[in-house]
Amino acid sequence: MTQFIGTSDIRSLLRHTGLEPFLVGLAGYIEADFRRWESFEKAARLASHSRDGVIELMPASDGELYAMKFVNGHPGNTAGGKLTVTAFGVLADVSTGYPVLVSEMTILTALRTAATSAVAARALARPDSRVLALIGAGAQSEFQALAFKALLGVEEVRVFDLDTEAMDKFCLNLATSGLRIIRAGSVAEAVDGADIVTTCTADKTRARVLTPDHVVPGMHLNAIGGDCPGKTELHPDIVAGASVFTEYTPQTRVEGEIQQMPADFAVTELWQVLTGKAAGRRSAGEVTLFDSVGFAIEDFSTLRYARDLSRAEIRDIDLIPELDDPKDLFGLLAAQSPKWATIAASTAAGSTRQSQSPRPLATPSGSPNT
Fold this sequence. Notes:
Layout: E1 2-5, H1 7-17, H2 19-35, E2 41-42, E3 46-49, E4 54-61, E5 65-73, E6 87-93, E7 99-104, H3 106-124, E8 131-135, H4 141-152, E9 156-160, H5 164-173, E10 180-183, H6 187-191, E11 196-199, E12 206-210, E13 220-223, E14 232-234, H7 236-241, E15 243-246, H8 249-255, E16 268-269, H9 270-274, E17 288-291, H10 296-310, E18 315-317, H11 329-336, H12 338-356
Parallel strand pairs: 1-7, 8-9, 8-11, 9-10, 11-13, 12-14, 13-17, 15-16, 15-17
Antiparallel strand pairs: 1-18, 2-4, 3-4, 4-5, 5-6, 6-7
Helix pairs in contact: 2-3, 2-4, 2-10, 3-4, 3-10, 11-12
């Protein structure tokens, strides 16, 4: 049987573990897989773009397990009461091709994005960073704030969104989080005094949410909203002046902030920093930028983590047929359907009669040729 983790299972799991401990554990899985980056089969996601959004397939494999996520991004959905991003994922056994797990990934994608942001910031931001500015208070925002609190010790979050109701929601949801929440009146007010700035806006356009006058020496920028061609958040001069770090660069050059830069613009992949193959932050005054678009290895890590953490409570679904004879798929239908049994018996009887009285080879004149 294939194991299944649904939305209710994830909610139950998070109530049991606590959201922050879950994020810490997930960050550990993601960082461990980034450290063995070179052992993965990697590919940029397959994207189908429309006027309203994008639907994507995101695969990754380490040779033993294969993961694939189906995910969409439709910024206009909220106007109709639907989520901007939804997702589900599959984890399969490479040796047989059998899916071993099917899981919801709408909640898990928000968690893995936040955990990945914190893993990158822990490697790239100044160690004394305690103030986070959040530009965008949508579905990702609370997860980002809690991940930075849990993994970096962030104490204050300065939030701004053009949608005041989104800020109301953010402040209400994190009222008991232990974070000091500052409701800013503008982007400039939010980033003033911030050590880390996360941009998480959803508009599918080339936006300039941050401009050079918002950035000061020593900042770490975490750009997670730009994740498809033609969708950016940072003024190109910010990108040009920062030390830029990516997940899988071939995908980021198409979808990330660096799509605004020349094709030979120099970047460093995060896994290289985590393994010591490349330097991260070189000085306290350096501006670092994690140009994050989301990569399939993060989903691979998340599916493994959710499976391992849920193992005792996990459910099964009959997604794949179980057969006595693996060459007799049709027999599964015949064995369970009286209709198929009747047809089979009738066919057998007809064969017996045919053997006793062979039909003529020619069709009689005037009869329809069937």
